[in-house]
Design goal:
By secondary structure, the chain is an alpha/beta fold. Helix content is 25%, strand content 17%. It contains 16 helices and 22 strands. The strands form six sheets. A seven-stranded parallel β-sheet has the order 11-10-5-2-1-13-12. A six-stranded antiparallel β-sheet has the order 14-15-16-22-18-19. Strand 14 and strand 15 form a beta hairpin. Helix 1 packs across helix 8, helix 8 packs parallel to helix 9 and helix 11 runs antiparallel to helix 12. It is globular, with a radius of gyration of 25 Å.
Length: 616
């Protein structure tokens, strides 16, 4: 069978990929492997790989690289997919059945805690604790040491940025070895130890994964700038960069090679362009190299890669990066295979949380719908639409009707709005405190919304200590002491910030405790009860479960505001009933109105918040 490549060259590699496209992972056999033609023999050594490369066309051979034998900087682990065994490596812990009951703490390990300084210079990230763009030394051992701190706030799920080995970057999203733990973060045993330690505490672990792009591995011809409509002729895999592992990814045809994105609103650039570095003014001419996801073989390869991380490390779910930058057919192939594998070993509720960086719930919901084969691609996405609305409202750029519209659209768009991943900031966006000018009261008010609205609350590390960094990399401050880089956006520059006595830490712990105590906040339906159009106003919504109704009220402005007829459900409340504010001891409000239309009258100081429940 001949396979025509994009540049018009028929290659053996293309034939092999077309053969692979017909293979799948067997959900009934955990140890099943995807069989590649070039690994048909039992000896899967580097010598065999080199001999198979020699059978490729001259054009393909010139654009590929041999892997340096014995390079000590590679993480230990399989070199090719043929070496991957999907037999679970130890105990399999079922993933949580009810994700809506969970609360997430999001960590970038390099910035969190340095538990083993001996690994700081390992790998290819580049260690320099004085440089915001380099690795600072945080690792997996440090994260294990701080599980008490995380669980002490009430969090029962840990989301970690990618731990796959990177090249040239510290953040985890520049993969070069997709089958190995980055040695600067520790060994494979350290990551498994982290997952096991979390499971022993009743905590789940979500691993961030990237299948859209690799590290910057492409060398474009001299003079090539910007994005091109077709693959740029003469582009090769950069000989100065280590070969990609697994070997099956280490070929030029696996990449779009069309140059960096210049216009994020151009669908073709968004799908096929390399990810450039963005300093807020300019986009770089090089970036994270974009995989050719239209090739079905790539989806099958990554299905096995992701299944390997489940088998070896017992993770409970994936946060999947840059989902909207990939064609839909790719996800239709990859996600069902990973789901089937996870279910086959006992993880029936394995979480697939996509990053769909989009401002509308309708667009995000397309990725959670049932597919023609009956499978669904993802559970529920990270809630970027609500983040964008909340940020606008709290900085005075929109009225609270925007939040009302977003809550209604969230409930309408998703099969289960209660497992959408909610956040108020993260590693890609300015911290919320930076957005509101450092006002801690505004942050507390937004946190009340985060923990009581439908969906799973996700808190980005450092929020509980008042970190206020702006856009990347300022929002990736060190939690551990780093006297060489004194971030101005932390309370004590250069010092450790693991303070369980801080006011914000205690406030987060209180919200997590209330969410655990009140089932309606986790599993209830949602109704907007107070909003204002074209003017400043309060925002209120109800969470309802059976005969219980809980009311959240926030003031997203710095002015005292009131509501005179905030309606309640007449099936739950009657005039004369008393509600208590669970956020301020001693504050009570009596229901007024009529039997048919009970309501509340209340006032809130600037950035105030209430969580109202029936008085016992």
């Amino acid at each position: 069978m001949a396979v025509r490549e994009a540049d018009g060259v028929t290659t053996t590699a293309g034939l092999l990929r077309a053969t692979l496209a017909a293979t799948t992972l067997s959900p009934a056999t955990p140890s099943a492997t995807i069989t590649l033609d070039w690994h048909a023999q039992s000896d899967h050594s580097e010598a065999l790989y080199a001999s198979q490369r020699a059978s490729l066309s001259k054009e393909t051979r010139a654009a590929s690289r041999a892997t340096p034998a014995g390079d000590p900087r590679y993480a230990q682990g399989p070199k090719s997919l043929a070496e991957v065994d999907l037999t679970p490596a130890g105990r399999v812990t079922p993933s949580p059945e009810h994700w809506e009951d969970r609360s997430f703490y999001f960590v970038m390990p390099d910035r969190f805690e340095d538990g083993d300084p001996s690994n700081n210079r390992a790998g290819w990230a580049g260690f320099d604790p004085k440089d915001r763009e380099k690795a600072h030394g945080g690792d997996l051992r440090g994260l294990i040491e701080r599980l008490d701190y995380i669980q002490g706030m009430g969090f029962d799920t840990l989301w970690v940025t990618p731990v796959m080995q990177n090249y040239g970057e510290y953040h985890g999203y520049a993969g070069i070895n997709f089958l190995g733990v980055d040695p600067r973060l520790g060994k494979a045993e350290d990551f498994r130890a982290l997952v096991d330690a979390a499971h022993a505490r009743g905590m789940a672990v979500i691993l961030d994964v990237v299948t859209n792009h690799s590290a910057d591995v492409l060398a474009y011809p001299s003079g090539s700038t910007g994005f091109h409509d077709q693959p740029v002729s003469g582009t090769v895999l950069d000989p100065k960069v280590p070969a990609i592992r697994p070997y099956e990814l280490n070929a030029i045809e696996n990449f779009h090679r069309q140059g960096p994105v210049r216009n994020w609103y151009d669908p073709k650039q968004m799908r096929n362009g390399d990810f450039p570095k963005d300093d807020g003014v300019h986009l770089s001419e090089s970036g994270l190299s974009d995989f050719n996801t239209e090739d079905p073989a790539l989806a099958h390869n990554f299905a096995k890669i992701l299944s390997y991380w489940i088998a070896k490390f017992d993770v409970d779910g994936f946060r999947i990066d840059t989902v909207k930058h990939v064609n839909q057919e790719y996800w239709d192939t990859l996600i069902p295979q990973v789901r089937d594998y996870a279910e086959s070993i006992g993880k029936k509720s394995f979480l697939m949380m996509p990053e769909i960086f989009d401002g509308t719930h309708a667009e995000q919901a397309r990725y959670t719908e049932a597919r023609p084969n009956g499978a669904t691609r993802f559970n529920s996405p990270l809630n970027h639409p609500f983040y964008f609305g909340l940020e606008k409202v709290y900085r005075g750029a929109a009225s609270t009707s925007m939040l009302g519209d977003l809550l209604r659209s969230q409930v309408a768009a998703f099969r289960d709005a209660n497992i959408v991943g909610n956040f108020i900031d993260n590693h890609d966006l300015p911290r919320f405190l930076a957005t509101v000018g450092g006002d801690v009261k505004a942050l507390e008010s937004a946190l009340v919304v985060l923990f009581t609205m439908p969906g799973v609350p996700i808190v980005y590390y450092g929020t509980e200590q008042g970190f206020s960094g702006g856009r990347d990399p300022a929002n990736r401050e060190d939690m551990f002491a780093n006297p060489g880089l004194r971030y101005p956006s932390v309370p004590h520059p250069g010092q450790s910030h693991f303070d369980p006595k801080s006011a914000l830490y205690g406030f987060v712990r209180r919200l997590a405790s209330l969410r655990e105590e009140i089932p309606a906040l986790r599993r209830g339906t949602t109704e907007v009860r107070w909003e204002r159009w074209n003017e400043a106003g309060l925002f209120a919504f109800a969470r309802k479960l059976e005969n219980d109704e809980v009311i959240t009220v926030v003031n997203p402005t710095n002015e005292r505001l009131g509501a005179r007829d905030l309606r309640l459900d007449p099936r739950v409340y009657r005039p004369g009933d008393v509600l208590v504010d669970r956020l301020q001891a001693g504050r009570e409000i009596t229901v007024t109105g009529t039997v048919a239309q009970p309501h509340l009258e209340l006032d809130l100081d600037g950035y105030g918040a209430m969580l109202l429940t029936r008085k016992a």
